[in-house]
Amino acid sequence: MNILAPVRRDRVLAELPQCLRKEAALHVLKDFHPRVTCACQEHRTGTVGRFKISKVIVVGDLSVGKTCLINRFCKDTFDKNYKATIGVDFEMERFEVLGIPFSLQLWDTAGQERFKCIASTYYRGAQAIIIVFNLNDVASLEHTKQWLADALRENDPSSVLLFLVGSKKDLSVSMLVWGTSQLGEETFPHLTLTFPKTPAQYVLMERDALKVAQEMKAEYWAVSSLTGE
Ligand SMILES: Nc1nc2c(ncn2[C@@H]2O[C@H](COP(=O)(O)OP(=O)(O)OP(=O)(O)O)[C@@H](O)[C@H]2O)c(=O)[nH]1
Question: Molecular function terms in GO for this entry (predicted)?
């Protein structure tokens, strides 16, 4: 008996969106292993091991917005209050890609140094690594290389997909639109002193982020969990 709720409508991909390459759906390739192809056609992907579940780990400095990013993606919610992740947490998101069920396991890891030891024990076996930094905090971008190195120590660098994600874009955009004088502790209590002071500094930040992403061979995204962009 199947007790799982149906897959959410926006998680059903009947056709691959243009931005996705066909190779992303491995089971449609001609030379894919016949046993797996057959299991996919018969919806028995549970019998072919790791094929059914993809593990994604989300790493980055404390308070950069990892939990909020996952919550926006999985539950479409946002909480402005900061609650530190202790060790790790995880969410499971179900998809159907070209008729085949897939589950995405999203591991939210703690950014705080004292929990790093616990969190890193969950890095192994990831198919994708998302390294998050705060677009308004230069130091958090500088630390992304160390986060990547730590995560890659437990994974196969040749097969893992990498994403560099700049968070809290709404703060930068607000700054660009309103100017810094109208921003303050009252509006954004978690602003740090490293906040870029001018639009030019923000542009520099994005340029540096793109450079880091290129060096890492990661795909770069700038996002806001507050607005959902
Ligand atoms: N304005 C704004 N605030 C955000 C955004 N994302 C996260 N925040 C805030 O930043 C703070 C930290 O967010 P979390 O998601 O808990 O950060 P984290 O990286 O999971 O932190 P750790 O668990 O300590 O590693 C919270 O107060 C959030 O509300 C965003 O996109 N925009």
Answer: G protein activity; GTP binding; metal ion binding
Q: Taking residues 133-154, what's their average pLDDT?
A: 95
DSSP state of 79: -
Q: What angle do CA 123, 99, 42 make, to 5 degrees?
A: 95
> What's the pLDDT at 18?
66
Which run of H or of E encompasses 106?
strand 100-109
The residue whose CA has the least distance to atom 6 of ligand 1 is 65
CA-nearest residue for atom 14, ligand 1, is 65
- Residue 83 Cα: closest atom of ligand 1: 16
pTM of the model: 0.82
Total residues belonging to the chain: 229
Q: Report CA 176 to chain centroid distance, whole Å.
A: 25
CATH code, 129: 3.40.50.300
Q: Tell me the residue range of the domain where 82 lies.
A: 9-167+200-222
C-beta atoms surrounding 137 within 10 Å: 24
What ipTM was predicted for this assembly? 0.99
Q: Which of 89, 135, 185, 225 to mutate to test the pocket of ligand 1 (most atoms within 8 A of CB)?
A: 225
The alpha carbon of 225 and the centre of ligand 1 are apart by a number of angstroms equal to 8
Domain count, the chain: 1
- Measured from the CB, is residue 62 less than 6 Å from ligand 1? yes
